[in-house]
Specification:
With about 140 residues, the protein is α/β, with parallel strands linked by helices. The chain has helices at about 15-30, 45-55, 85-90, 95-110, 120-140, and strands at about 1-5, 35-45, 65-70, 75-80.
Amino acid sequence: MIVNINNEQNEFEINEAKMIEIVKKVIISEYKDDNFEINILITNNKRITEYNENFRKKSGPTDVLSFEYGLNEPVIGDIVISSEKIYEQSKEFNNSFNNELYYILIHGVLHILGYDHIYDESEAEEMFEIQKKYFNLLKEEG
């Protein structure tokens, strides 16, 4: 199993080891396989806006984008996270930066595994329950 993290921002300290631990635990628990590769890009609002506009045709920054390639592919997916958006949301939801990052990371991983919350309300409920379950197991205390 390979988790590649490209942290192209330097405004916020990122615990890459914890991120890798989270990705591995969620994927192995849900997918029941450790033969995967996933890429994670941590960037800023400007860069994620470009991705959001190019791939989703939506303007402005978002917290996370997931690109699912299929569980049988050598690289099962890419995740793009805006550290600036994570910081904004951590303040909005009274959460630490790291825990907000981990919550959103779990969300992105679940999308890679095929979970969705856009088109079906019952699927959305299921996805958010699973996201909360992993977050409560893996978040930082304090």
